[in-house]
Amino acid sequence: MCGIVGYVGNKQASKVIIDGLKRLEYRGYDSAGLATLNGTLELNKGKGKVANLEKLVGDSQHGKIGIGHTRWATHGEPNDINSHPHLSQNGKLALVHNGIIENYNTLKKKLTEQGYEFYSETDTEVIAKLIESFLDKDASSLKKAVQLALHQVTGTYGIALVHSDFPDQIIVARKGSPLLLGIGDGEMLIASDASAVAAYTDKVVYLDDGEIAVITKDDYTVESAEQVELTKEVHELALSLEEIEKGGYDHFMLKEIFEQPKALSDCLRGRINVNEGTVTLGGIESVMEQLVNANRIVIAACGTSWHSGLVGEYLFEYLAKVPVEVEYASEFRYKEQLIGEGDVMIVISQSGETADTLAALREAKERGALVLGVVNVVGSTIARETDAGVYIHAGPEIGVASTKAFTAQVTVLTLMAIRLGLEKGTIDKKHAKKLIKELSLIPSKIEEILKQTDQIQHVSNLFSYAPNFLYLGRSYSFPVALEGALKLKEISYIHAEGYPAAEMKHGPIALIDEMMPVVVIAATHHTNDKMISNIEEVKARKGRIIAITNAGNNEVADLAEFSCTIPETLDVFSPLLSVIPLQLLSYYVAVNRGCNVDQPRNLAKSVTVE
């Protein structure tokens, strides 16, 4: 969740590191710090955002090697002492860490008995002191001391450290928390996310679990957990600076909402043939036979990705006639595991690094299931560990509240369901052509919805006061109701709940009064009459109705106090359109309330700790 950046080369390391930390701040922004080597160790850190660190550092650190960190707190509250980097007792070693050390209390007690002192509440400080304890016994090799220390550690980590007695090297190691090396000309970088190095190089090496690397300005070596030197593949980044800048928008979230027509066009490009009614997904063609013969599909994901998985359940069951279960990845491993050979698991993650989703992936693979990935970040851990998969090609998503990743995930799941349906014969060519033609029009239809932004902004102005929202939907619109409620909660801090519309009568109807906005997603034709009944029930209790419905559905529009229309489409594609007004509504409500849209409190973009 936190962000790590490191640099060794000929530039002033502090400037490069702070630039990288700014690009990673969406991963954590409770505190920030950096350590550089310039003969001795120079350290600045503190509570607050990277801008605070930048002011604190000024032009005071001139070393050409260093490490930095932006934190999302796990152990210890956000404050100056708990911020990273953490030091060894002799002040020669500085270390930054992403992850959670599960046995840190045991290690801390042991080290305290040996005379080492602790100043923070973090688990990270334990690693720094543990490495120091091995260096105190043998000061000849920093890498060896790190390896010995990590053998005693239980948990997850991505670490980077520098030591004043080894002034030309950065040591990094990974287990369960992403790290990559950026290869430059006479300089090397390390980071937990590629966006931090994109301004300096387009060549990266991804570390895998159990690996440790020693980086100098001209070279790097990588070893496995068994201390075998490895030759790692160098990947080329398909990432431009323009993609990770705001581009004139007030917030990344707004930019990413408006990028959805392009993101979905990129997602579809080269994968559909409208004239022939075919879908080509090179990433899963090699496992198509296993997909066709699958007993069932299990979808595992978290947060917004879980909502896209719920849409996927409807898609696969309708188009491919295969039973589907959607699991919270965070709960999957704690259930009785009945997954195995003949089953297919699809794991969905924007970052490709979500810790709980990775754990579900590994559990399913171990039990013999075929595991497919639907991810955005090329080269991510999930992309590397799944048997096969499909990238969503949405481009970098910086805003913590996911928008374009959701619609791109749903688009990819739609493509997979159509492809599987064709292969199984559960849909014929005529039906497939109709589906694919309509799918190809979705990007332009989203553009039409985005032209209603002023209208949606006006509605948001009227309801920014509300302490609660209720979102209702049926069929394909139910997951959209969940997603709309989540977006509002994430960035405006308003309590909101999404429900299947028929479940309103089983409890939530007790909450409805004239102060309760109820967002009704009435965007599927086959449930329209039922949704009208639900709207009438809300009106009878003086609820304030905001309707998302199809153009021409005057019956719903006339009943609602406010309505936003979406272009006509097939029911199966309605989530791709109906979610857009909900994203805009949550955005403008949050802005009206003065919330930090891109960096909502207590949240981080990528949940890489359990």
**Alpha-carbon Rg, integer:** 25 Å
CATH fold call of the domain at 3-243: Glutamine Phosphoribosylpyrophosphate, subunit 1, domain 1
* Structure classification: alpha/beta
Q: How confident overall, as mean pLDDT?
A: 90
CATH superfamily of the domain at 3-243: Aminohydrolase, N-terminal nucleophile (Ntn) domain
List the strand order in the largest sheet: 3-2-4-1-10-9-11-15
Observed structural traits:
610 residues; alpha/beta; Glutamine Phosphoribosylpyrophosphate, subunit 1, domain 1; 7-stranded antiparallel beta sheet; 36% helix
Describe this structure as you would to a colleague:
Helices cover 36% and strands 23% of the residues. The termini are close together. The mean pLDDT is 90. The longest helix is centred in the C-terminal third of the chain and has 21 residues, at 404-424. Among the domains are: 3-243, Glutamine Phosphoribosylpyrophosphate, subunit 1, domain 1, CATH 3.60.20; 449-610, 3-Layer(aba) Sandwich (Rossmann fold). The strands form five sheets. An eight-stranded antiparallel sheet has the order 3-2-4-1-10-9-11-15, covered by helices on one side. Strands 5-6-7-8-12-13-14 form a seven-stranded antiparallel sheet, covered by helices on one side. A five-stranded parallel sheet has the order 19-18-20-21-22, sandwiched between helices. Strand 13 (220-223) and strand 14 form a beta hairpin. By secondary structure, it is α/β, with parallel strands linked by helices.
